[in-house]
């Protein structure tokens, strides 16, 4: 009896082993999160042997120079249950060895600890510092992930969250750096968050105490998406609702964990597994070629959308995503696909403009006609349905950290930003300021009308209203500038007229309150100067300003790792050499960076020789970024002799060193 039982078990075990795949012949992956110069890296074959799982890679770069790549000894595979399998060997190279990619393509094989029999899908994570990359959801073409099933309770929880985006209250973020040593060389982290309805970006310097803790509280008017940047420039992204006290622990290996102080489960409890920074598209496919292929690119976007769905299904099974996390990740990935498609459409517009310039004309009407002739969305109703199939109008877009770029792509696309407004018949009938206000109002109205056309709805989507609201403050400024230019005295009356019309257009008390905030912010910015707050950033700045008593000081925040910074300095060095190096009685130009010495000094010697240049610590730089509230560079500030900051900083080329005081107008 025992022998029979053992025979049955052995047969079953052998059968289970033999049923597992021996290889992936037609290898596919859901998402490639490789570093920029390794986007073309692909897995072409997977062999499941008894002693190892062997991956064959192919890599061909079309860029110069031919970059060197490596597979580090910390690389591993992760199976469907997130168990890890270490790298064992490379056949053509040594682990950790950098080798060049041949212009004709490079093939190499890497062996890992054997994955369990029956493995259908897995991830590969390479781990060598700056060359870190992932290839996620590696599978054979025959594999299809199971669709997740959520309980009614989970779906209701997700729905409740989506419909409670707008509410006011404080958020407190508390951080703990595990194993922190106050002598480790850093005492600050930096936090970024965006208020999407008015495009305000906030940069906060988080001061870490000697025990490795920090705490920061701030008031918000809706759920927010944010990110904390650590001392290794790694981004830790999160979302928070008003009333939350969020505790974040940062570990030495770069991972983190989130919890709410009141014991409620954190909204994105599996956030570390949600695909922030992961692309299910080959971005090269969205670049312009020799011809316009909107239909083909649209079809490819649909393919990527389907790929995203399968990847999210795979993630949901592997990491047990909640319904809310599933929806959040789905929208995040799908909108990245949409962004690539809209980028392609923008490139067509740029190409049309370049065509006109090269042919000696800049006929705007002709450019518009060229756009429409090649526009599959404006010509074909299927195009509108294509846009409607993407969840860009979902309220969860409000809380996606640093996803504001999709607003800009969508807002200025021809399908949304498509209007011809002719008010010539009203010239002389209405006064100039009212006519200008009417034009801006009609532009906003058409935006919302186009959105309803795209989505086939009777009411503009929240997304469209937020897109429109991003222009409200610009329109306040535009009306103000127009009235001043035309010598019109009732400026504030015209602005209030526009404000009232916009609020009626929105027809939403919460968004109307946002318009009030935008108006108050606009009025605040009308003051020519603002006083620096008492903070560490002011202390850092004052030490530098002490070298320039009685002078206006123009500050250029820059970095050697910032392309626009470097190109700006290089391309204008001859024009600016005198203003950079000459000693003026009332003016000084200075450059501030936190770059490491090995990058900073060679660049300074070649391009900033003789200029007033400061290399400060990352902590001091964070303090300045927090005080001036900037997250992107190049960034410029102008400080008066009595220590006030100029509200509207002029372009560097406009500043007159002999008369640096800004125009009070």
Percent of residues in helices comes to 25-40%
What profile does the largest beta sheet have? Answer: 10 strands, antiparallel
Structural shape: globular
Which range does the strand content fall in? Answer: 15-25%
Backbone structural class: alpha+beta
Mean pLDDT: 83
CA-atom Rg in angstroms: 28 Å
How many angstroms separate the termini? 99 Å
Number of strands: 26
Separate helix tally: 18
Low-confidence stretches: 1-18
Q: If you had to describe this structure to a student in words, what would you say it looks like?
A:
There is one protein chain. With 665 residues, the chain is α+β, with helices and mostly antiparallel strands. 37% of the residues lie in helices and 21% in strands. It has 18 helices and 26 strands. The strands form 6 sheets. Strands 1, 2, 3, 4, 5, 7, 8, 10, 11 and 12 form a 10-stranded antiparallel β-sheet that branches. α3 (294-319) packs antiparallel against α4 and α4 crosses α8 (405-411). It is globular, with a radius of gyration of 28 Å. The N and C termini lie far apart (99 Å). The model is unreliable at 1-18 (pLDDT under 50).
């Amino acid at each position: 009896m025992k022998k029979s039982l053992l025979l049955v078990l052995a047969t079953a075990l052998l059968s289970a082993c033999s049923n597992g795949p021996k290889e992936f012949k037609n290898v596919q992956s859901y998402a490639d999160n490789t570093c920029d110069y390794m986007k073309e890296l692909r897995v072409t074959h997977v062999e499941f042997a008894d002693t190892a799982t062997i991956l064959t890679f192919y890599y061909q770069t079309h860029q110069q120079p031919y970059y060197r790549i490596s597979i580090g000894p910390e690389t591993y595979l992760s199976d469907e249950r997130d168990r890890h399998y270490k790298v064992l060997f490379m056949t053509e190279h040594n682990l950790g060895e950098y080798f060049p990619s041949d212009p004709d393509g490079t093939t190499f094989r890497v062996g890992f600890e054997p994955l369990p029999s029956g493995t259908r899908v897995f991830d590969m994570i390479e781990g060598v510092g700056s060359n870190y990359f992932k290839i996620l959801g590696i599978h054979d073409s025959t594999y299809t992930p199971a669709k997740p099933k959520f309980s009614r309770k989970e779906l209701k929880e997700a729905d409740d969250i989506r419909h409670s985006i707008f509410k006011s209250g404080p958020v407190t973020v508390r951080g703990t750096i595990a194993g922190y040593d106050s002598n480790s060389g850093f005492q600050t982290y930096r936090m970024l968050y965006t208020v999407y309805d008015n495009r305000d970006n906030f940069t906060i310097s988080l001061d870490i105490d000697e025990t490795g803790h920090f705490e920061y509280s701030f008031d918000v008017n809706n759920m927010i998406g944010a990110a904390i940047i650590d001392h290794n420039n790694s981004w830790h992204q999160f979302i928070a609702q008003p009333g939350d006290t969020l505790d974040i622990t940062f570990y030495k290996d770069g991972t983190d964990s989130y919890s709410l102080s009141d014991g409620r489960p954190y909204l994105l409890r599996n956030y570390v597994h949600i695909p922030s920074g992961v692309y299910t598209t080959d971005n090269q496919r969205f670049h312009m070629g020799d011809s316009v292929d909107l239909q083909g690119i649209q079809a490819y976007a649909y393919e990527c959308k389907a790929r995203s769905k399968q990847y999210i299904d795979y993630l949901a099974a592997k990491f047990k995503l909640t319904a809310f996390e599933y929806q959040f990740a789905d929208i995040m990935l799908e909108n990245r696909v949409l962004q690539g498609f809209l980028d392609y459409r923008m490139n067509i517009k740029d190409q049309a403009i370049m065509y006109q310039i090269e042919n000696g004309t800049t006929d705007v009407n002709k450019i518009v006609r060229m756009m429409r002739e090649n526009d599959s969305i404006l010509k074909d109703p299927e195009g509108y349905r294509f846009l409607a199939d993407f969840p860009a109008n979902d309220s969860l877009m409000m809380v996606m950290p640093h996803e504001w770029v999709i607003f800009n792509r969508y807002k200025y696309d021809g399908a949304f930003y498509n209007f011809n407004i002719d008010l010539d018949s009203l010239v002389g009938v209405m006064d100039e300021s009212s006519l200008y206000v009417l034009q801006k109002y009609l532009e906003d109205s058409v935006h919302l009308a186009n959105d309803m056309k795209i989505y086939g709805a009777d009411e503009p989507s929240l997304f469209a209203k937020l897109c429109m609201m991003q222009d409200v403050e610009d329109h306040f400024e535009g009306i103000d500038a127009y009235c001043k230019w035309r010598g019109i005295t009732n400026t504030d009356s015209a602005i209030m007229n526009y404000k009232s019309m916009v609020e009626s257009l929105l027809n939403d008390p919460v968004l109307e309150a946002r318009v009030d905030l935008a108006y108050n912010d606009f009025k605040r910015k009308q003051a020519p100067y603002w006083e620096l707050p008492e903070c560490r950033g002011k202390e850092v700045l004052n030490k530098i300003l002490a070298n320039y008593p009685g002078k206006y000081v123009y500050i250029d925040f820059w970095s050697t790792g910032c392309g626009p910074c470097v190109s700006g300095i290089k391309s204008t060095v001859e024009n600016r050499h005198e203003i950079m190096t000459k000693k003026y009685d009332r003016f000084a130009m200075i450059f501030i960076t936190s770059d490491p010495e090995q990058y900073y000094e060679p660049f300074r010697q070649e391009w900033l020789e003789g200029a007033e240049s400061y290399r400060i610590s990352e902590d001091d730089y964070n303090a300045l970024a927090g005080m001036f509230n900037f997250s992107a560079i190049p960034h410029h500030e102008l400080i008066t002799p009595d220590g006030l900051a100029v509200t509207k900083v002029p372009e560097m080329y406009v500043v007159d060193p002999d008369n640096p005081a800004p125009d009070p107008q």
